[in-house]
Amino acid sequence: MPDQTSTDLPSQWSHEPGKILRFRTGDKIADIDTDSSPGFTGNRAAAAEIQADRNAHLAGLQELLYADGKGGNNRSLLLVLQGMDTAGKGSIVKNVLGGTNPMGIRYTGFGPPTEEERAHHYLWRINNALPPAGHIGVFDRSHYEDVLVVRVHELVTRDIWEGRYDEINTFEKELVESGTTIVKVAMFVSLDEQKRRLAERLERPDRYWKYNPRDLDERKLWPAYQEAYQAVLDRTSTDIAPWYVVPCDKKWYSQLAVTELLIEAIEAMKLTWPPATFDVEAEKKKLAGA
Q1: Taking a C-beta distance cutoff of 8 angstroms, is the pair 225, 148 a contact?
Q2: Distance of CA 254 to CAs 21, 39, 147, 161, 261, Å?
Q3: What confidence score (pLDDT) does residue 7 get?
């Protein structure tokens, strides 16, 4: 059986994505070059060739993770995609996870809370969407909306959202200790690129459904969002659940980078294929005579 547990990083990466993209104390959002491709020396064409191979490798690792869960272990992975609209969260889901087995993926897109969700603690809906053992969970937006949108729009008082940073850290610590690896990706796109992508949606009838007039209002609040995102990175990037900051003006780069982050995370689990729970040779003989 092919070994899905290790592979060499493609030569076009000068640095491991998990190291170069990891948020570090003192890093500033204002300094992010959203049009850059940190650690990757290739171009778009090279990335397209690599992406296909890496997607296949990720699919193999996902199968291994799923088999591990079926074997009775409790490991899972949670991918958190957090960013302003048009940052490319949907493209990540489609082009990175699209080649995996949907049976082992649990996707949740978090919009404004429903009436039922508002009646509970803000982490209630998050707990309900966590990936089971052996699965990759994907959060398109997440519990961080409750210290981003909620903060910017002053939906609750400051003393409430201030307390949520520590609460989130505790929640994620317990989640990791229970067997879930968390990969948190903060996706940043420039206002110019966001404007270009919004304009494209208005030019294409097949993209009208993706356009939301409220996005223009949110653009005006970018300074407040920038401050809120900085606080999120400063206060919730921990050793057990760090943030990775991904420039997203080049979608081909952000997709490739997230692919590598997922590969790194699953490989770090050191998974092995679960052993047979039956006598293999005896079953071969029975099958031969069937």
Answers
A1: yes
A2: 11, 12, 24, 30, 10
A3: 61
> Where are the domains positioned within the chain?
17-271
- Please give the Cα distance from 155 to 97 (Å, whole number): 33
How high is the mean pLDDT in each 10-residue block of the chain (290 residues)? 59 93 97 97 94 96 97 97 95 93 96 95 98 98 97 96 98 98 98 95 92 90 96 98 98 97 97 94 92
C-alpha Rg value of the chain to the nearest Å: 20
CA distances for 173 relative to 8, 58, 168, 238, 239, angstroms = 30, 25, 8, 9, 10
Please, which residues bridge with residue 216 across strands? Answer: none
Q: State the pTM of this model.
A: 0.94
Q: Provide the pLDDT for residue 120.
A: 97
Q: At what angle do helices 251-267 and 44-70 cross, to 10 degrees?
A: 30
Superfamily of domain 17-271: P-loop containing nucleotide triphosphate hydrolases (3.40.50.300)
How is 134-198 classified by DSSP, letter by letter? Answer: T-EEEEES-GGGGGTHHHHTT-S-HHHHHHHHHHHHHHHHHHHHTTEEEEEEEEE--HHHHHHHH
